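During the reporting period the student researcher (J.K.) took over the structure-prediction task from the postdoctoral fellow and processed the backlog of single-chain submissions. One of the processed entries is reproduced below for the supervisory committee.
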Amino acid sequence: MTEAHTWRGGGCHCGAVRFEAALPATVEAQSCNCSMCQKVGFIHVIVPESRFRIVQGEGRLTEYTFNTGVAKHLFCSVCGVKSFYRPRSNPDGWSVNARCLDEADGLTFEIEAFDGQNWEAHGHTLAHLSKESA
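J.K. obtained the following structure tokens:
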């Protein structure tokens, strides 16, 4: 049986960039200790491509890549907030920052620690999160 998803809005601090993500009532999320996530406090909610859409400000996004260049870190060029990005672990999906959602009412977050400092050993464990559920 397919789990029901509800579209939730979110965005950057200044409101120039807005997105929507279809999320289930119970959301699997990761708190990562890699050099990037640790500094910005990003809480990952990885969703398939079909459950994510940019609704405003795509032209205001600035891209940053490092290391392998696979992950596409996208920041609002006005306020600098990274609300979502294309993750290296899931290049077929999106990682939304749970902290950038407008409302979390009705959502239960199951936040697990992810060892991003040792990404090569653990990155594959996230691949299922950008796949459509049956």
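The committee noted the following: The chain is about 5% helix and 40% strand.
J.K. will present the remaining backlog at the next meeting.
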